[in-house]
Amino acid sequence: MKMKFNLVVLAALLVLTTACKKENVNDKEVLLDTISAQRPEAVETTTPTAQVPADGKYSTMTFQKEEHDFGTIKQGDKVSTDFQFKNTGEADLIITSARGSCGCTVPEYPKTAIKPGETGTIKVSFDSKGKQGKTNKTVTILCNTKEGNKILNIHANIEVPNKN
């Protein structure tokens, strides 16, 4: 009798868990559909779907550096660096978004197309407020390259000032 009760409870939990997951996925899809219908520029895909261009030509981002170390900084310092790149591909480079791994890392990127052979800059600002020790942050760039994205890295060693 006790075994039957446990099986019934287990089955009920399984059904409820599965039903909730399906409902959440549908809710998210409805929300994304609503947002994209009202403001298509507000919807960002986290996994780019690289489509082969009709002419088969892609843009390519070639960076002078893909990583920057700010060295040792004091907690609360605001620092920034520029990541220079060149479009070494055969098509216009279009950056659709650039996102920091947290709110303390803010990228600024070109909003216009970068033609083949032209250069551009992505400025990355980092606010060390509330951080301490060795810190690694990333910036993910979504663009129309064959890979669909590019990741830049920044590092810092943040010292907490003495309160004496």
Describe the structure.
The chain has about 160 residues and is an alpha+beta fold. The protein folds into two domains: about 1-40; about 60-160, Immunoglobulin-like, CATH 2.60.40. About 25% of the residues lie in helices and about 40% in strands. It contains one helix and eight strands, in the order H-E-E-E-E-E-E-E-E. The protein has one helix at about 1-40; strands spanning about 60-65, 65-75, 80-85, 95-100, 105-110, 120-125, 135-145, 150-160. Strand 7 (about 135-145) and strand 8 form a beta hairpin. The model is unreliable at about 15-50 (pLDDT under 50). Keywords: Signal. Pfam families: DUF1573 (PF07610). This is DUF1573 domain-containing protein. InterPro entries: DUF1573, Ig-like_fold.
State the fourth-level CATH superfamily of the largest domain: Immunoglobulins
Taking all Cα atoms into account, the compactness measure Rg is 23 Å
Give me the CATH architecture of the largest domain, please.
Sandwich
- The number of E-state strands comes to 8
Structural class: alpha+beta
Low-confidence stretches: 13-49
Enumerate how many helices there are, as a single number. Answer: 1
CATH class of the largest domain: Mainly Beta
Query: CATH topology of the largest domain, anyone?
Result: Immunoglobulin-like
In total, the number of domains comes to: 2
- The helical percent reads 10-25%
Largest sheet data: 4 strands, antiparallel
Give the overall form.
elongated
Average pLDDT across residues? Answer: 79
Q: Give the end-to-end Cα distance, rounded to a whole number of Å.
A: 69 Å
Strand content: 35-45%
Biggest β-sheet: strands ordered side by side in the sheet: 1-3-6-5
Please trace the helix and strand order, writing H or E for each element: HEEEEEEEE
Signal peptide: 1-21
Organism: Flavobacterium cheonhonense
Protein name: DUF1573 domain-containing protein
InterPro entries: DUF1573 (IPR011467), Ig-like_fold (IPR013783)
